[in-house]
Every structure is written in structure tokens, then in C-alpha cells.
Design brief:
Arc Repressor Mutant, subunit A; Glutaredoxin; 10% strand; 282 residues; two-stranded antiparallel ribbon; 2Fe-2S; iron; globular; NAD; alpha+beta; single chain; 35% helix; iron-sulfur; 8 helices
Length: 282
């Protein structure tokens, strides 16, 4: 951002003043944590990603003050830090909720209901993509593949998996989060708020009882290639067999797949032969 002429809104091309520093007590605490992070790497600038998680854990997003802190600790310019912080979507650039609810809208999740879930949650919560509810509890966003296609459609809350979701189960999930109820992921560690999640991603241990022991696994379809590579015996196919009466070179009529899109397509929506389109920016 740049300064503007008073009363006219005309950009003057003058950069804003440097971001303020953290209060002395906060800075001392973060410096001790940062020293522990930097010590893990032979080149200090390699610590930038976890340090951005560290400052994100302080205020729930990466502030200009946080980027200034990272630059000073690592001997980088604020421009170098900003380039990284703005490249990765995992770093928030504005205040966000205690729970980051991400709805996978990549191909398989989308056609199995992810698009419908995302649309329903926007209406249910009264927010758009990347926006936060008025109570500050939930930030909603659509996200790309979570590598959990055999559990589609998948939601993630602060990067923990909630598998095999429906519109109704997703609504119940966000309602419970906003009500402060305890919510257990389908697999993985117990849920915690976003600030604590960011600290864990910075590389600090999760000291909650049982958190480290909690776990989960990919499903059979995801692991089929690994089993074959290891020489393990198992089913040769993880998808439904072709119809026995259909020759090899012919496709069965109709839509036998359970993965057909619930949204309108060019085949089912004659008024839009090219399929539904989104407005620019959606």
C-alpha cells in the first residue's frame, strides 16, 4: 500500500512506514522460539517457512510486524519475506477464524458433493470464500486436493481430516465448532484452534495427552500402488469391474459410475451446452 493525498485518494507512490515491532515481552519470547527453529538448519534462511508459522501462531495470521520479525531474525529484506508469505496460501494475510474449514473442490471431491457442500456452507454461515463468521469462529474456503480421494468428499478443519462428508454433516460440523463443542476428526490428531495448529506446524511438539499417538491412514484405493510395489498380494482391482456383457472396446451405456457429478452438466442442462460457468473472480 502507498500513502494518498489527503482528501483526494490520489496515490503518491510513497510506501507506508515500517511495521511496528512486537512489544518487548512478546519479542523476547518469539526470539527464543526462533533461535530453536533456526538451529535446525545449516542455512538460516531455510527456517523462513517455520518462522512464518511461528509468527502466525501469535496473532492468527502473518502480520506486517510478523514479517518484519522474520526478516530481522534471518537477515532478509521484508520484500523477500513478503514474497514467500504471499506465495503460500497456508499463510493468512488477514485476521481469520479459530477454525479454518476447507472444503475440497478438486475433481473427485467436487463431483461427489464437494461443490454442493461448499455452496451450502456459504449460505449456512453467511460468508464467502476466505471470509470469517461474525463470531470469529470459522473461516470458510475451498481448497485443492487433500490426497484423500478414497474418502471423498473431504473437509479439513485446521488441516485435520473430516471424511465422507455430506451437506448435512458439514452443516452440523460447523455448528458444533461455533458452539464450542468438542469435535473429533475422522483420523489424525485431536482438533485444536488455528493458533495452536500454526505453532505445531512451526515444529514445536504437540503436548496434548494422546495427540502424538493419534493417527490415521489412507484408504485401500490410495494404498493399492504401494502394496503392489512392495510385492504384497491383494485384489488386482480397486474399482468396479466392467459390465460382463459389454465388449472390451465398448463403453457401457448410461452413467454406471457412482462418481457422476451432482451439478448440472452440458448433458443434463440443454440451456447451457458448454456447462455451468462461474463469474470472474469466483
Amino acid at each position: 500500500m502507498t500513502a494518498t493525498a489527503e482528501g483526494h485518494g490520489v496515490p503518491l507512490g510513497m510506501p507506508q512506514l515500517p511495521a511496528p515491532a512486537y512489544p518487548d515481552d512478546v519479542r523476547a519470547r518469539l526470539e527464543a522460539d526462533a533461535a530453536e527453529v533456526v538451529a535446525r538448519y545449516p542455512d538460516s534462511r531455510s527456517a523462513l517457512l517455520p518462522l512464518l508459522h511461528l509468527v502466525q501462531s501469535e496473532e492468527g495470521y502473518v502480520t506486517p510486524t510478523g514479517m518484519r520479525f522474520c526478516a530481522e531474525v534471518l537477515g532478509l529484506t521484508t520484500a523477500e519475506v513478503t514474497a514467500v508469505a504471499t506465495f503460500y496460501s497456508m499463510y493468512r494475510r488477514r485476521p481469520s477464524g479459530d477454525y479454518q474449514v476447507g472444503v475440497c473442490t478438486n475433481t473427485l471431491c467436487a463431483v461427489l458433493g464437494g461443490d454442493a457442500i461448499f455452496e451450502a456452507l456459504q449460505e449456512h454461515l453467511g460468508v464467502g470464500n476466505g471470509e470469517t463468521t461474525e463470531d470469529g469462529k470459522v473461516t470458510l474456503e475451498h481448497i485443492e486436493c487433500n490426497a484423500a480421494c478414497d474418502f471423498a468428499p473431504v473437509l479439513m478443519v485446521n488441516w485435520e481430516f473430516f471424511d465422507n462428508q455430506t451437506v448435512e454433516s458439514a452443516k452440523r460440523l460447523v455448528d458444533r465448532l461455533r458452539a464450542g463443542e468438542e469435535v473429533a476428526p475422522t483420523r489424525g490428531a485431536p482438533l485444536c484452534d488455528f493458533k495452536r495448529t500454526a505453532r505445531i506446524l512451526a515444529g514445536f511438539p504437540d503436548e496434548r495427552p494422546g495427540a502424538v499417538a493419534a493417527g490415521g491412514s489412507a484408504g485401500p484405493a490410495s494404498l493399492a500402488g504401494l502394496r503392489l510395489a512392495k510385492g504384497e498380494e491383494g485384489p488386482r482391482s480397486v474399482v468396479a469391474p466392467r459390465h460382463p456383457n459389454v465388449p472390451d472396446q465398448e463403453e457401457p451405456a448410461g452413467h454406471p459410475s457412482s462418481h457422476d457429478a451432482p451439478q448440472q452438466t452440458s448433458a443434463s442442462d440443454p440451456e447451457h451446452p458448454a456447462g455451468p460457468t462461474a463469474e470472474e473472480g469466483e
